[in-house]
Amino acid sequence: MADYQIGVFAVTSKDKPKIVLVTSRTGDRWIFPKGQPEKDRSKQKVAKDEAWEEAGLSGTIKSSPNEFKVSYGTTKNLIIYYMKVDKIHDSYPESKERKRTIVSIEEAEELLEKDLRKVLKAMAKKYL
Protein backbone atom coordinates (compact mmCIF):
# COMPACT_ATOMS: atom_id res chain seq x y z
CA MET A 1 0.00 0.00 0.00
CA ALA A 2 1.33 3.45 -0.95
CA ASP A 3 2.19 5.95 1.77
CA TYR A 4 0.06 8.58 0.06
CA GLN A 5 -3.48 9.12 -1.13
CA ILE A 6 -4.88 11.23 -3.96
CA GLY A 7 -7.92 13.45 -3.66
CA VAL A 8 -9.83 16.54 -4.66
CA PHE A 9 -10.50 19.94 -3.17
CA ALA A 10 -13.92 20.09 -4.82
CA VAL A 11 -15.40 23.59 -5.21
CA THR A 12 -18.93 24.23 -6.48
CA SER A 13 -18.39 27.83 -7.63
CA LYS A 14 -15.97 30.70 -7.22
CA ASP A 15 -18.60 33.36 -6.46
CA LYS A 16 -19.75 31.92 -3.14
CA PRO A 17 -17.48 28.87 -2.96
CA LYS A 18 -18.79 25.73 -1.33
CA ILE A 19 -16.56 22.76 -0.60
CA VAL A 20 -17.68 19.15 -0.91
CA LEU A 21 -16.64 16.80 1.91
CA VAL A 22 -17.50 13.17 2.62
CA THR A 23 -17.30 11.02 5.70
CA SER A 24 -14.53 8.48 6.06
CA ARG A 25 -15.55 4.88 5.43
CA THR A 26 -16.02 4.42 9.20
CA GLY A 27 -18.16 7.57 9.27
CA ASP A 28 -16.28 9.08 12.20
CA ARG A 29 -14.71 12.09 10.47
CA TRP A 30 -15.10 14.42 7.49
CA ILE A 31 -12.50 14.22 4.72
CA PHE A 32 -11.86 15.26 1.13
CA PRO A 33 -12.87 12.63 -1.46
CA LYS A 34 -9.67 10.63 -1.91
CA GLY A 35 -8.25 7.20 -2.59
CA GLN A 36 -5.24 5.01 -3.28
CA PRO A 37 -2.97 5.40 -6.31
CA GLU A 38 -3.33 2.75 -8.99
CA LYS A 39 -0.66 1.51 -11.35
CA ASP A 40 -2.50 1.96 -14.65
CA ARG A 41 -4.23 5.27 -13.86
CA SER A 42 -2.76 8.76 -13.64
CA LYS A 43 -3.01 10.63 -10.33
CA GLN A 44 -5.42 13.07 -11.97
CA LYS A 45 -7.65 10.19 -13.15
CA VAL A 46 -7.64 8.65 -9.66
CA ALA A 47 -8.66 12.02 -8.18
CA LYS A 48 -11.58 12.41 -10.61
CA ASP A 49 -12.68 8.79 -10.12
CA GLU A 50 -12.64 9.16 -6.31
CA ALA A 51 -14.68 12.37 -6.55
CA TRP A 52 -17.28 10.42 -8.52
CA GLU A 53 -17.24 7.22 -6.45
CA GLU A 54 -17.21 8.82 -2.98
CA ALA A 55 -19.11 12.08 -3.53
CA GLY A 56 -21.04 11.81 -6.81
CA LEU A 57 -19.12 14.68 -8.38
CA SER A 58 -18.25 15.30 -11.99
CA GLY A 59 -16.07 18.22 -12.86
CA THR A 60 -12.77 19.50 -14.17
CA ILE A 61 -9.36 19.32 -12.53
CA LYS A 62 -8.03 22.89 -12.55
CA SER A 63 -4.59 22.54 -10.93
CA SER A 64 -1.38 20.62 -10.87
CA PRO A 65 -0.96 18.31 -7.85
CA ASN A 66 -0.57 19.89 -4.42
CA GLU A 67 1.27 17.81 -1.84
CA PHE A 68 0.72 17.90 1.92
CA LYS A 69 2.09 15.97 4.88
CA VAL A 70 -0.79 14.67 6.96
CA SER A 71 -1.17 12.25 9.82
CA TYR A 72 -4.38 10.35 10.31
CA GLY A 73 -4.90 6.63 10.07
CA THR A 74 -2.28 5.18 7.72
CA THR A 75 -2.22 8.24 5.45
CA LYS A 76 1.05 10.18 5.67
CA ASN A 77 0.92 12.25 2.50
CA LEU A 78 -1.96 13.68 0.50
CA ILE A 79 -1.80 14.72 -3.14
CA ILE A 80 -4.80 16.92 -3.81
CA TYR A 81 -6.12 18.65 -6.91
CA TYR A 82 -8.40 21.68 -7.14
CA MET A 83 -11.53 20.51 -8.95
CA LYS A 84 -14.30 22.74 -10.29
CA VAL A 85 -17.54 20.83 -9.74
CA ASP A 86 -19.80 20.83 -12.80
CA LYS A 87 -22.50 18.47 -11.50
CA ILE A 88 -23.48 16.89 -8.19
CA HIS A 89 -25.23 13.56 -8.76
CA ASP A 90 -27.84 12.12 -6.40
CA SER A 91 -26.86 8.54 -7.15
CA TYR A 92 -23.21 7.41 -7.03
CA PRO A 93 -21.27 4.24 -6.11
CA GLU A 94 -20.59 4.94 -2.40
CA SER A 95 -23.76 6.91 -1.58
CA LYS A 96 -24.88 4.25 0.90
CA GLU A 97 -21.46 4.04 2.59
CA ARG A 98 -20.69 7.74 3.09
CA LYS A 99 -22.43 10.98 3.91
CA ARG A 100 -21.73 14.01 1.72
CA THR A 101 -21.93 17.65 2.71
CA ILE A 102 -21.55 20.86 0.73
CA VAL A 103 -20.40 23.68 2.99
CA SER A 104 -18.70 27.06 3.10
CA ILE A 105 -14.95 27.28 3.79
CA GLU A 106 -15.76 28.38 7.36
CA GLU A 107 -18.10 25.43 7.91
CA ALA A 108 -15.53 23.04 6.43
CA GLU A 109 -12.93 24.38 8.91
CA GLU A 110 -15.27 23.38 11.75
CA LEU A 111 -15.79 19.87 10.36
CA LEU A 112 -12.24 18.92 9.40
CA GLU A 113 -9.58 17.72 11.80
CA LYS A 114 -6.30 19.63 12.26
CA ASP A 115 -4.22 18.26 9.36
CA LEU A 116 -7.02 18.50 6.82
CA ARG A 117 -7.91 21.97 8.10
CA LYS A 118 -4.37 23.05 7.09
CA VAL A 119 -4.92 21.56 3.63
CA LEU A 120 -8.26 23.37 3.34
CA LYS A 121 -6.75 26.75 4.28
CA ALA A 122 -3.78 26.36 1.92
CA MET A 123 -5.95 25.27 -1.01
CA ALA A 124 -8.53 28.03 -0.39
CA LYS A 125 -5.78 30.66 -0.24
CA LYS A 126 -4.21 29.40 -3.46
CA TYR A 127 -7.34 28.79 -5.57
CA LEU A 128 -10.23 30.88 -4.25
From TrEMBL:
Which Gene3D superfamilies has this protein been placed in?
Answer: Nucleoside Triphosphate Pyrophosphohydrolase
Cross-referenced InterPro entries? DDP-like_NUDIX, NUDIX_hydrolase-like_dom_sf, NUDIX_hydrolase_dom
Keyword list (alphabetical) reads: Hydrolase, Magnesium, Metal-binding
Q: Work out whether the entry's keyword set contains Zinc.
A: no
Essential cofactor(s): Mg(2+)
Domain of life the protein comes from = Bacteria
Which Pfam families has this protein been placed in? NUDIX
* Keyword Ion transport assigned: no
Q: Domain Nudix hydrolase, which positions?
A: 3-125
Alphabetical GO CC annotations of the entry are: cytoplasm
Molecular-function annotations in GO: metal ion binding; pyrophosphatase activity
PANTHER family per the record?
DIPHOSPHOINOSITOL POLYPHOSPHATE PHOSPHOHYDROLASE (PTHR12629), DIPHOSPHOINOSITOL-POLYPHOSPHATE DIPHOSPHATASE (PTHR12629:SF0)
Protein's name in the database:
NUDIX domain-containing protein
Q: What is the lineage of its organism?
A: Bacteria, Pseudomonadati, Verrucomicrobiota, Opitutia, Puniceicoccales
